[in-house]
Every structure is written in structure tokens, then in C-alpha cells.
Amino acid sequence: MGGKYRVTGAAYPRMSRKRSLRRIVLTALGAVLALAVISYGALQLIDVFRGDSPKRNTAAGAGDCPTAKPATAVKGGPAAAASTAAKPAVVLPQPGQITVNVYNATPRAGLAKAVGDELKKRGFVIGSVGNAPATFDKKVPGTGILVGAPATDKAAFAVLGTQLAGTTQQNDTREGADIDLILGDAFKELSTKEDADKALALLANPAPAPAKNC
């Protein structure tokens, strides 16, 4: 162009737009945030390589797992350690050491004799067999009641109880070691010998409590 608008020399007017203040602020914030993330990641890596970790609260609360104790050496080697860890079996009386009196508290005729004969086949010593005394006659709604002296071995009750599910236990004033089996209205039949044997085995070797997941 000519006249007074003619451009002379090597300098030219700048034609670029002025930078937006908002764009500058956002760019600065983004740079600061990126720097903070990079710094945090670097600190985490340093902690990992040093083996540092946040300290855990050592106070045991409800439901907390106990702190594992360091294993100690057991004299005698692995065999001795295994024998120490093994839980001894429970010593139970044999059926032949238990005298059972079988009484029928139901209206079903011949029930006491049939049950007594079956228990005898399974090794129990059978004492008296007949109708239940008036205290229990027609008054036992469950499968049966086991009655014995206060000093009767609880294991004897448990062994006899494996032959009939759902029985309850009572004590009276007797002094002998015999146990009364009083059959109730809900009685159908004795447990099968297979089920009774399994229950006896579990009674002698109770399963350990399940390990607690920590």
C-alpha cells in the first residue's frame, strides 16, 4: 500500500492473539497436579525398595486373629513333632461295659424287647426289659430318655446315645452304673448300625475346629 500506510523497514506488526488468562491458569494448575502425582509415585517406589510399610495396629480387637507364634524346635525330630501335634483319641467305654435297661413308655406292644435284642446284638449288656414305670409311662413325647445315677460316666451316656438320635438325659437317686433307655412316642427305630458306628468313631476322634481365616 502507498501513502502514509506504507510499511517500511524490516519490522512488521505482530498479528497473534492475546493469550487467554483462563487458559494460562488451567495450564499452570495441570502442571502442578502432574508434578504432585509424579512426586507421590516416586515416594511410594522409594518406600517399596526400602522395605518400609505402614505400621499395623497391634491391639487385638474382637474377632482378630491371634499373632502367630514362631515355631520352636521339638526334641526328637519330625516324628516327635508329629506325635506332639496329634490330638489323642478320647477313651470311651465299650458297649460291653454298659448295662442298659430298656423300658417302653409307648402303647406299642413288644417294643422294649425288640430294641433290647438289637442293642444286645451291638454288644451292649441288657438288664431289665419291660414297660416304663408310671413316672414315664405315656409321658415321653420325644424319641427317648436316658436315665442314670449322678455318678454315671457321661461318656457312657454318649456311647448309648449314638444308637438313638434325639434322646435326652436325666439323673435319679440310683447308685449303680446301669442306664435306663425309656422309649418315647416319637421313637421309630434305632439308628442303623452303620450310622451308629460312624457316630462312635466321631465321638472317639472329634474333628478339629476349622482354622480361622485371617
N-to-C terminal Cα separation, in Å?
87 Å
Classification by helices and strands = alpha/beta
Binned, the helix content reads 25-40%
Number of strands: 5
**Percent strand:** 5-15%
Unreliable residue stretches = 56-60
Shape: rod-shaped
**Biggest sheet architecture:** 5 strands, mixed
Gyration radius (Cα, Å) is 42 Å
Instruction: Give the overall average pLDDT.
Output: 80
Q: SSE order in H/E notation?
A: HHEHEEHEEH
Q: How do the strands line up in the largest sheet?
A: 2-1-5-3-4
Q: Number of helix segments?
A: 5
List the helices and strands and how they pair.
Elements: H1 21-50, H2 78-85, E1 99-104, H3 111-121, E2 125-131, E3 144-148, H4 154-161, E4 168-171, E5 179-183, H5 193-204
Describe the protein's architecture and organization.
The protein is built from 5 helices and 5 strands; from the N terminus they run H-H-E-H-E-E-H-E-E-H. Strand 1, helix 3 and strand 2 form a beta-alpha-beta unit. The radius of gyration is 42 Å and the shape is rod-shaped. The protein has 214 residues and is α/β, with parallel strands linked by helices. A 5-stranded mixed β-sheet has the order 2-1-5-3-4, covered by helices on one side. Helices cover 32% and strands 13% of the residues.
Task: List its traits.
214 residues, alpha/beta, 5-stranded mixed sheet, 5 helices, 13% strand, rod-shaped
Please give a quick description of this structure:
By secondary structure, the chain is an alpha/beta fold. 32% of the residues lie in helices and 13% in strands. It has a five-stranded mixed β-sheet, covered by helices on one side.
